[in-house]
Design brief:
Blueprint: E1 3-4, E2 27-28, E3 36-39, H1 44-53, E4 58-64, E5 69-74, H2 81-87, H3 93-109
Antiparallel strand pairs: 1-2, 3-5, 4-5
Length: 114
């Protein structure tokens, strides 16, 4: 749990309001580090299947249409979005970005236009 003065911002860029204040200028917040962004490319059907087969355990917390991202989270203790993404072979946004960056770098090394 992060502790400090200032504010705590989650992975979506939202400032957390529900924080404990044990002392002046200090606060504590619990973050859900299993919440996972998934890009829609190549994943839409896999995400639909995961959500259908794990209804009551995993939910789509939000969809970002401009970016084409899903934000998935566990709603049942013990369920893990990240583990299920691996099981369903769903590429997370982090993995998508790393793969994309490798492909762009490789194209540049070969002198190809991007």
């Amino acid at each position: 749990m992060p502790v400090g003065a200032g504010n705590i911002i989650d992975s979506t860029g939202k400032t957390l309001d529900n924080v404990e204040k044990p002392r002046p200028q200090q606060f504590i917040a619990t973050l859900d580090l299993d919440r996972t962004f998934v890009h829609t490319n190549f994943n839409t059907q896999k995400v639909k299947k995961l959500l259908a087969e794990h209804k009551g355990e995993i939910e789509q917390e939000h969809f970002y249409p401009m970016e084409s991202w899903y934000l998935l989270r566990a709603t049942k203790p013990g369920a893990s979005v990240r583990d299920l993404c691996k099981q369903y072979q769903i590429e997370t946004l982090r993995q998508y970005r790393h793969r994309s960056r490798r492909q762009i770098d490789e194209a540049r090394r070969k002198g190809q236009k991007i």
